[in-house]
Structure formats: C-alpha cells, structure tokens
Amino acid sequence: MCLALLVILLHCSSLKAREVFTINKVEIRADPSLQVPNGDALTILCIADISKSGNFMIEHHFTFFKDGRILSDITSLQNRTEYKIPAARFADTGEYVCMVKAKEKKKKSEVMLVKVTGLPKPKLTALKNMVTEGEELVLKCEVPEEAPPLTFTFQKLLTPGGPVTRTKKELEKNFTTIEIPVEPGDKILRFQCIASVYSAHGMQESAPSDVELVTVVEPFSTPALVIEPSLNVTEGDNVKLVCRVVVRNYDIEIIIQKDKVILNSTRGQNTLTYFTKVSMQDNGNYTCKVELGSVSKEKTVNMVVTELFSKPELIHSAKMIDEGDWLQLQCKVKGLLPVTKISIKTRYLGKDNLLNDSSSFITKAHVNNTATYICTAEINGIIKESDPVKINVYAPVSIPQLWIVPSVRDVILGRAIRFQCQSMYGTPPITYKFFRGNKTVNSSQIFNKLPAEFRDKPTEVGVEQYSCEASNHHSHIRKRSRELNITVIAPVGKVNLISVPKREVEDGKGISFRCYVETGSLPINFKLLKQNNRKPISEDTKMDTEVIWYKETWSKQDSGEYFCEASNPTNIVQRSDVISINVILASWQKVLIALFVLVIIVILGCGGCCWYLWKKRKAKHPSIEMSGSAGVTNSAGVKLEPRQNSDGQYYPGYMDDSENHMKATDENKGPEHEITEVEYTEVEVSTPDPHRAPVQKGTEPVYSEIRKANNDSGENRYSSEIRSNTVRLQSSVKLTICGSNFVHDPLVNSLKTKPICKRKSICRENKRLNALNEGLLSSAKLREAKSLPFREN
C-alpha cells in the first residue's frame, strides 16, 4: 500500500514539473476605434498570448493603466478581458496600457493613445429673468458630464459693438458663475456660453449653449432740460433752466451743471430749476444729470448769449516809465447802450484798489506807481473788466561800487578773484556789466537790492584795472564805477640749487651755493636748509631772482644733503631738488697718510731683508739649539733662585753635585781628555704654564743647558750640566755660559767675556764656546733674541 502511494506522489510531482508556460505578447485594443466621439461607448480590450507545455489552466491578472494611473484590476482564467466606458468624455482621452501577470511572470502591452473628440453643450442659467438698470446680473454655465479643468466663455449678444465676451477658468469645478452689470438703455439682454478644455493631447471646444433672455426695467426715464425764455438770449437777460424726469418711487439725484461746474442739485424730486442773469461767460453747454447708484442718465443743451457791450480796453502811455514822467491811463468801452459806470483800479495780490471813477487817469510817475492796473464798465447790471496792464516806473541807478571779496591788496596770478558790484539806488531789475580795462568780461541782471557777483582770473603779472557799470530800464541813465587797481603777482616757479665745487669739497676749504628761480614776483625770500634740519643755514630776501651764499671752512660734520626754498608775498613755498655735499680729506692730509704708509712699508721691507740674511747665514753655520725652561715665578708670584723649582724648593745637588762630578771626571781623565769638542748647543724658551701665576713683564729668567759629548769615545761619556743665572736682555744681552758671562752690546755688536771660572777645565771650554757664540749671536739672531724675555743675572 505504501509503495503504491509513493508511486502516485512521484507521478504527480513529475506532472506538475512539466507545467511550463511563457507570455509571448500582450496586446491592447480600442473598440470601436482609437478616436471616439464624446458620449459614445468605448471598450478597451487586453489579450494575452501565452504558450504552455501542457493542457493546464493558468490564472491571469489583468491591470489597465491610463496615463500611468491604474484604472482597473481583473482576474480571469481566460487569456483576454475588457474595460468598458459607457459614455466616453474628453477626460477619457489619454494613453492606455495593459499588464498581464501569471504566477511570477508578467508583461506589458504597448502604449495605445485614445482620443475623445468634442464636448457636450454647456447649460447656461440666469438667476433672475428681470433686472433693473445698474443691477448686477448673475449667470451660471456648467458642463456636468465633463471633469475639470474647464474654460467658460460668456457672450452678451446684440450689442452695438458686437458680442461682449468674458472668460473664466475653473481648475476644480465643472461649472462657473459671473456677474454682469446692466447698462442704462438696455432693454432685453441675450446671453450664451461656450465650454472648452485644454490638455497635452489637444484642445476641444463645445457648441454654444442655448440663449438665455433677461428683461431690463428702467428705474427712471431720461431727463428733459428746458431753457426759458429761449436758447438764444442777450447779456443781462434773466434765464430759467428746468430739468424734469419720470421716476418709479426711487430716491434719485438731479444735477444741473455747466461744463464741469455744478450750478444746482436736488435729491428725491423729479424736477430741478436754476435761475441766472446771463453774461458772455454764461455762453455754452448746460447738462441735466440724473443718478441712482451706478445708473446715470443726462441731457445736454447749448445756450447762445449775445454780447451787450464789448470788454473795456485800458489804454496806457507806456509800460515802462522813467520816474518823473507823466503816467496816463484811459478806459474805452464799445457798445450800443450808454455806460452806466466806469472805474480805473489797481490790483495787488487779488485785491482791487479804486483810483478814479472816470474813464481817464493822469499823474506824475513815481516808483510807488509801479502796479497792475485795470478798468471796469457796467451796463444794465452787467460788469466787465479790461485785461490787466502791468506798469513799471523806474528810478535811475546810482554810481555803483566795486570791491573784492575778501578784501586783499595783491592777488595771485592764475587764481580767480571774486568781485561784487552794487548800485545803492535804482529800480530793479538792474543790469551790471563787469570790465577789465575796456573789455567786457561778464554781465548779470539782479532783480533785488543785492550786489552782483563776478569772477575773473588774471592772466598777466602787473596792475589790472577793473570797473563795473549799472543800468536799468530807465531810458537815459547808465552809471559806471571808479576803476579798481589790482596788483597781480606770480608765485615763484621752479627753484634750482647748484654748488661750486659740485658734490665734493676738501676739508677746511669753502663752497658757494647759488639758488635761483625761473619765474616769480619780487621780492623773493631764499632759505638754504640741510636735510632733516628745520633751522635754515642761511636766509635772505632779495629783489632779485637769485642769491649766492659762501661758507669758508667746511668740516666732515658738514657733509649731507642740502636744498633751497623760495617764496614771495604769495606765500607759496617752492623747494629745489636735494643736492649731496661730501667733505673729503685735504691734500696735505692725503700726503701725510701716504708718507706714513710708505714708512711702514720701508720698515717692513728692511725687517724682511734682515730676516732673510739671518736665515741665509744660519744655514752656513753649525746648528746650535738652545733649550730652556722659563721657571720665572712660582704660583705665588715670588722670584725663584736658580736652584729653585716652581714651588720654591731647591734642586738637590744642583750646583755642588755638578761641581763634584765635574771635578771627579777631571781627575779621572787623562791629558788626552782635557780638550773636548762641543757638538751643539740648544736653547729653548718655553711658554708659561697657563695654570700657574702670570709671568712678570720686562725681565724673565732663562735657563740654558749645554751638553758636551765625545762622539769618538763611547766608554768615557760624561755630561755636565751647567745652570747659569738669569740672563737679562734690555739694551744689551748678557749670557752666562759655563761660568763665564758673555755680554752683547748692540752698538759694539761684539761679545765680552767676564771669566768667573773656578776650574781650568771649564774655562778652557769657555774659550771654545766663545768662538761658537760669535756665529750664534749674529745681527739677525740678535733681533730674534730681543723678542725673547730675559732677566739680569
């Protein structure tokens, strides 16, 4: 039994493993077509092409998309399905895609564009079918079937200028409302609307809606304006204007106006009257206006006024009169009727002052008669005035005064000078002319009592003459000022400084400075200064363009940089370039230095020659070396005895043992050993020990040691140490060798021996040493010896 079940399970697994399929293609279609009229049915078909390995069922999941948004999800065992739209609208226009999913596999169709053409006819509604002039009419237009955004266009039909349109866009609603004012004169209003929609796939517009009719009711009639007695009147006539209107229980306002001037008004009445006595100024158009809220109706008539008499004319002798002349005025009037009243007046700031109640006026002119004059005439209650006439009476100008601001005696060339000219008397405006000599420089007109101001820039050095002239509208008089003399001075130009000699001067000698300017007015102040020193070395004021300074004796401290400053009464200081002066040695100082250097060279040359000769002579003689240790003082600075060491202790057996040893040697030696040869002598001078006390200057002790040996006899060697007392070398040199003193005198240049021998053998040795010392103490060696420290015995 178990074996049978196992076989069945294995068979089922093998069958299930063979259920293989693949989605070949997904196709999407539109029925009836890709372009559908608005309102028609639209079906979207989705078909899946699937290949299978056997006859088994597969569950299909269909998903419809429009413009990337999911429209519907359908699950079916069939390989096709559909999405139905009963009435297609413009909102259904777009790109459609179908996706099929089976188990873990899925595939999409290609994009299909579907267009819905046209829009349904919108519906227009007026909230009121009867309105009054000036009222706001509300209209509503809607397309219930479509989805926003929509654009609505309202049209007002049968208007004189053609349809009046208004457009409104709705983004979230499929309807809109507008308010349209009812204009005066409208009787029956006709409206219609059109809907349109815009998208990325195009634009569609609906057919116009049905026409909506609205009746307009007048709140009042158009007013009537009547002028009594007639439209043609004469100046002085009394005229009545009457405005009437028919009204239906409304609180209206009636206004009568001429041009923009309101003459009369009333409210709540249907009649308005205006009375006036007309003149020529009343000629023109008159309007009656009736208003209620935003509704306004008017009526205009033209009234013609005939002139009764002309405007009077004021005749004058002249507009500009000299003071003292006659002022004559006369008023003339042209007309058919006699003049009732005539007057001559003055007008100031809108206020009239009566001069005379007649047609003429005459007086002797004075400056106070300067004014604006008019004349008036009256006939039959109509008053007219002439055009105003401005008459000016001019008093003559006085002699003007000319001065400089600020007041100065001299002016600088090239700088502007400020002048003022004023005439104390005279009727303005006063015209001033400014002269340099006889040449007009400038002119100015002053309308008040202030002085005229002029500026001028002199171009030449010297004395300039200036004057000014004053005049006004007086017919005869011109006055000229006295001449004003101005001295024009020039500032100093470029400053130059030279020196003789240039740049260098010997110590103790003198130098001249010449400072001069190229241009400038006299007198000129010159200053000679040293750099970084404010105090002038020399200062002079000259009536000349140059100055010369001389300083006799110069020293090294006078070396430095010098410059010159120049100025004149313009107080403008100019500075020259800086020159450098170097004080050098005098000729005799140079010769003295040369002689000193020459002497040094000669001394060094002689020394070199002597050293060379000494070296040459030393090479020809046997080599003698002297060795010595300079035990001069001990650490306490105490002079030591010959037998003391640096610590002040005696050498044991230094002299006695030596003498005994030598004596024993002499006794043991035979005659053949009495005379021995000295092979060499060595002298050494050692430097002081730096750790000991300082060596005394002047006299220094030197110990010398002479060793004699007979090179022929190896068996009988002996040595004798002879320690001498201190040898001191100052003006002469004294050497103690083998108990004998050898004194060298530089003047004699010879050695003198003072025998102090105690033994004959030693003295015989001294004789032989004398011969050797003659070669040792040559003149060249003596100079070298002088540099060594010696000490007297």
In short:
With 793 residues, the protein is mainly β. Helices cover 11% and strands 44% of the residues.
**CATH class group of one domain:** Mainly Beta
End-to-end C-alpha gap: 155 Å
Low-confidence stretches: 10-15, 623-762, 776-793
Q: Structural class of the secondary elements?
A: mainly beta
The name of the CATH architecture of one domain is Sandwich
Overall mean pLDDT: 76
CATH level-four homologous superfamily name of one domain: Immunoglobulins
As a percent range, the share of helical residues equals: 10-25%
Total strands: 56
Number of helices: 5
Question: What is the molecular shape?
Answer: flat
CATH fold-level assignment of one domain: Immunoglobulin-like
Radius of gyration: 73 Å
Percentage of residues in strands = 35-45%
Q: Report the biggest beta sheet as strand number plus sense, adding barrel if it closes.
A: 6 strands, mixed
How would you portray this structure in words?
- The strands form 13 sheets. Strands 2, 4, 5, 7, 8 and 9 form a six-stranded mixed β-sheet that branches. Strands 11, 13, 14, 16, 17 and 18 form a six-stranded mixed β-sheet that branches.
- The chain is mainly beta and 793 residues long.
- One of its GO terms (cellular component) is anchoring junction.
- It holds the Pfam family Ig_2.
